[in-house]
Write a structure and sequence with these properties.
single chain; 22-stranded antiparallel β-barrel; 47 strands; 5% helix; globular
Length: 756
């Protein structure tokens, strides 16, 4: 185990030095921009307004602002910037955001695992809530299942780092990720494209929008994406970890009159793929009991692997079925300009998520952790907002929020190879039926007051009340151990409430430099142990809470060609929720508890520089020091060193060079390198579920015709074909299961896009 006080001491001192160094860099980097206070501003120096950088408008504070005006750490991507990332899915933005860990969830092709600054959801079970809120057009998405969105027909993506408890409510102690789709307007638009790649990749997409009258516009988009699997079963040649997805979206905008607008949208995603397989990183074992059932001997079924994986996994579940996901919903947003200073907004939404997934948790030919999970989630939400200003120095927002979510599920687990009786296999099947109902109510408000010429104070507060009802029944069936139907029932209700304030203070040094400070609180709802199979496991865990203090600077320099944003933060994370391991042997308990507190601190730098029109350089750097507080977190192997999914360093360096050809077309060369430091992939720090630091290289060459109507792009991702782990699944008490899931191998594509 990498568990050494001396190592922790070195890391702590090294981290302090690095943080101090980054603070110094921050001060030195800001200093040149301060000279504009005497030599020129955006108002007095016309040359300064000729920026080569795209100005991104966001609505993170519920009103339109540029990124530079928002007093918090935020990264945003326009549709064009997503194209430069070759972003197909939401996890494509990993690396382009400091201190963000965003990957495909374990054992699933549609789930997402999101951590921001070390705060996230360490268990994928539906009775856990996310700690980073994903939303689609301001509609909260309650589950990480189905959360790996396709990034087509997207106007922009906003990543808000740090607690967002005031404006976004529960389950945002880590931050929020906002996806905003394109709204049709009064100009006709059309796009179409096809893409081909290795692994028989084929993608086709189309978008069309335009006016149907002077007051009504409609948009429609369709995407189809298919690919053979990355993983091969060496026994029969079958392919897994494939892609077969259809996404459609219809969105309309209706100006009822000069003051009232109604925007509505409906979307549907259908996915039908094979199993999503990982690699068994430790020896898999069965327990062979003696004739009197008084003792057992471990029997190695499959030894621990050696060498590289090579994307080869044998499975016994090839004939079981794959993974199906249907994710759809609709929302209506009504905006009413009551007067020049006041706007009322209503957001009404309904969503449905249906999954039917077979998962080979043990990733082997043995029946140890073979499971089926069927989810039938639905949610209705209603939000009212009242936004206004006094026409001078005051902006404010107030609102009410309601959510009603229902999550019934059924699960089956097969483990016929786990237990033996004097060498004879003991069949074992467990079935689970459960139902979780959540009702959440909130009231919130925030005021931003420019109390002096360059100073703005923001104060916000939200009250949330939440009630959960949970029912669970389990049954077991075995040829020798007998049947128990039901074996155990769990029927509980509980409720929680919380106040989540936010305080901000910003100072505009000049038109090029803004300093800010932010103190914010966020909480993640409490819940129930969704793995309880006996009264011993029955438990209710409390909400998590995170307080984060942050100071930062947002700067524009060099006549608008260099934009750099900096942040230093420190967080106190209380009542961390975790499923903990109970160790090896016959022990099918899976306790869930408020395991520990965490101390988190770090720094972030995000810059983009266009020294000349043909060149654009960018970089995102993050440092994170994360450690358990109050004596640490004790798992099956003793005190654990470090939290999972919290690499100390994340970095990305990118550049693009454009040749402006005769006739008006452009040839672009783009390359990027992303670095991720070593990190744990499970709450219990297991050497098998540890990933060393690594680099990933991406790039593309594109030709864009005059006017941008045609684009041809040849791209490559993971050019070095690096093999690296991104997720882990740990159930040592069942066959010593320790399974890792890997990032995609090298892929290359050729695409043709047309727009009008």
């Amino acid at each position: 185990m990498r568990n050494s006080i001396e190592r922790q001491h070195r890391q702590y001192n090294g981290g302090r030095k690095l943080l101090k160094g980054m603070a110094t860099v921050m001060a030195l980097a800001v200093a040149p921009a301060l000279s504009f206070a005497q030599t020129g501003t955006a108002e007095t120096d016309p040359a300064y307004t000729e920026s080569l950088l795209e100005e991104v408008i966001v609505t993170a504070t519920r009103r339109e602002q540029t990124i530079q005006e928002v007093p918090m750490s935020i990264t945003a991507f326009t549709g064009a910037q997503l194209a430069e990332l070759q972003a197909d899915n939401l996890n494509s933005i990993q690396g382009a955001v400091p201190n963000l860990n965003l990957v495909k969830g374990r054992g699933s092709n549609s789930s997402v695992n999101i951590f921001i600054r070390g705060v996230g959801q360490p268990d994928a079970l539906q009775t856990f809530d996310p700690a980073v809120e994903p939303s689609l057009d301001d509609v909260y998405m309650s589950r990480i299942q189905g959360g790996l969105f396709k990034l087509y027909d997207i106007e922009r993506v906003e990543v808000l780092r740090g607690p967002q408890g005031t404006l976004y409510g529960k389950n945002t102690p880590g931050g929020a990720i906002r996806l905003i789709t394109r709204t049709p307007g009064q100009e006709f638009e059309a796009q179409a494209g096809v893409l081909f790649g290795n692994y028989n990749r084929f993608q086709a997409k189309a978008y069309m929008s335009g006016p149907l009258s002077d007051s009504f516009a409609l948009g429609l988009s369709v995407l189809y994406d298919e690919r053979d699997g990355f993983v091969t079963d060496p026994n029969d040649g079958r392919k897994y970890n494939d892609e077969d997805t259809i996404v459609t979206r219809l969105k309309g905008s209706w100006d009822i009159n000069d003051d009232v607008n109604v925007t509505f949208s409906g979307d549907y995603t259908k996915e039908d793929v094979q199993l999503t397989l990982g690699r068994a990183e430790a020896a898999l074992v069965a327990l062979n009991y003696n004739a009197t059932f008084t003792g057992f001997t471990p029997v190695v079924l499959q030894p621990a692997p050696t060498g590289k994986w090579g994307f080869m996994t044998a499975t016994d579940m090839g004939d079981f079925g794959g993974q199906k996901t249907d994710n759809y919903g609709g929302n209506i947003t009504v905006g009413w300009d009551i007067n020049e200073q006041t706007t009322f907004r209503s957001i009404t939404a309904y969503r449905k998520l249906e999954t039917a997934s077979y998962i080979d948790i043990d990733a082997s030919i043995y029946e140890l952790g073979d499971v089926f999970v069927g989810l039938d989630q639905s949610q209705f939400s209603q939000e009212f907002q009242l936004l206004g200003d006094n026409g001078d120095d005051l902006n404010w927002v107030a609102g009410l929020y309601y959510l009603n979510e229902k999550v019934p599920s059924n699960q089956t687990a097969w483990a016929d190879d786990y237990l033996q009786y004097v060498g004879i296999p003991i069949s074992f099947t467990r079935t689970v039926a459960d139902d979780l109902n959540t009702k959440s109510y909130a009231a919130f408000g925030q005021v931003d007051w420019q109390f002096a010429d360059r100073w703005t104070l923001g104060v916000g507060l939200r009250y949330t009340y939440e009630k959960k009802d949970y029912f669970r029944t389990t049954s077991t069936f075995s040829n020798l151990l007998g049947n128990a139907d039901p074996a155990y029932e769990f029927d509980e209700s509980d409720d929680w409430s919380d106040w989540t304030p936010t305080f901000t203070l910003s100072y505009d040094m000049n038109d090029n430099v803004r300093w800010y400070g932010r103190l914010a609180n966020g909480f993640k709802s409490g819940g129930f142990n969704g793995r309880a199979n006996s009264s011993v496991d029955k438990s209710t865990f409390d909400p998590e809470s995170v307080w984060t203090g942050e100071i930062g600077a947002k700067t524009i320099m060099a006549n608008g060609t260099f934009q750099a944003n900096y942040a230093l933060f420190i967080s106190k994370y209380d009542d961390f929720q975790a499923r903990v391991s109970v160790g090896e042997g016959l022990d099918l308990r899976f306790p869930v508890l408020n395991a520990a507190t965490l101390d988190l601190w770090g720094a972030e730098v995000d810059f983009v520089w266009a020294p000349v029109e043909a060149v654009q350089l960018s970089s995102q750097l993050g440092y994170l020091n994360s450690e358990y507080g109050d004596g640490g977190f004790t798992g099956a192997d003793g005190v654990q060193d470090e939290p999972a999914f919290a690499p100390k360093l994340t970095a990305r360096f990118a550049g693009m060079y454009s040749f402006f050809l005769s006739g008006g077309s452009t040839l672009n060369f783009n390359a990027s390198a992303s670095y991720r430091d070593s990190m744990w992939l499970s709450v219990d720090n297991l050497d098998t579920l540890w990933e060393s630091d690594y680099w990933v290289l991406d790039g593309f060459i594109s030709w864009v015709s005059q006017g941008g109507r045609w684009t041809v792009l040849a791209g490559i991702k993971n050019a070095g074909d690096k093999e690296y782990k991104v997720e882990g699944q740990e159930f040592r008490s069942v066959g010593n299961i320790q399974t890792a899931y890997y990032g995609d191998p090298k892929t290359y594509t050729l695409s043709l896009d047309w727009k009008f």
